[in-house]
Known about the structure:
Radius of gyration: 21 Å
Strand content: 15-25%
Structural class: alpha/beta
Number of helices: 13
Strand order of the largest sheet: 1-4-5-8-9-10-11-12
Oligomer: single chain
Mean pLDDT: 93
Number of strands: 12
Shape: globular
Distance between the termini: 34 Å
Amino acid sequence: MVTTESIRLRNYLFNYPVNRPRRLRSNVLIRNMIAETTLKPDDFIMPIFVREDISEPEPIKSLPGQYRWPLNDKLINFVDQLVSSGVRSVILFGIPEHKDEWGSSAYDEHGIIQRTIRFLKDSFEDKLIVMADVCLCEYTDHGHCGIIKKLPDGRYIIDNDSTIELYAKTAVTYAESGVDVVAPSGMMDGQVKAIREALDRASFNDVVIMAYSAKYASSFYGPFREAAASAPKFGDRRSYQMDPRNAHEALKEVAMDINEGADIVMVKPAMLFLDVIRLVKQNFPEIPLAAYQVSGEYAMLKAAIMNGWLDEKKAILESLIAIRRAGADLIITYFAKDVVAYLDEIERLF
């Protein structure tokens, strides 16, 4: 298909030797002057796992360099390092002592995430943006993201409408604890609408919703599920998370979330769905777009780096630049703390 854009580019391509693209790559100063994509600490959101029944940081085997944190000064010291480095946003995931079929610890006003929000806001006040994942998978004994319902034919399903009521209840308890951003991740239809209405009824009109709008049923969530003890005990999540074979379906999901009140939308995973990030940004350029560099993407890069197969700084920076270049405004990444230490080396490395 011949377009105006392709004709314009073709004219450039056939204009050698007048046009020599290598002129603009000839030295580091020129490369830096015309670089299209930048990274800065404010672009990053650090995921943090908080576990209820520990007193010392617990290494996560499948996520080398990451920890489950206790709710004490060890967590404060870690977050203080983040804030000092320029990373001023975290997203919280809880591992409770008690799990049941309804995920009741998720919406307990004294739950692990509610207490963590208060702890962090008391310590950092307006120096830190505290986000919290809104889902039930970490809190249910069956590991699914919602309420299990048995049908007359013996099949089990995740009941959409009763689940979003609990998401809304959870979000309000987070808001009461002082959260800045709630992030519904369960991919239930209507979850954003239910949460926005509940927050507004409770006079939390200013709490931001960052919706996991295009969350795919990916095999790259394995390390996260080990870290958060949230793997489903039976079945899978393909009936509610998106099919990796679909791209344009993401536009429907994003549009629904925006119409229901989402302030920020998200594509997850990031590296494997750069085309979807670009598609969403092109169609909704006015809406802030987050992308989640998920646990499997982190673990894959980390393993290659630890084996000496990839250069650590270049590989991490290149992966994050790709996500930004595709159109993401914000990146949730386990590399957040490490990468800010060498952001100033981008000009030398590239």
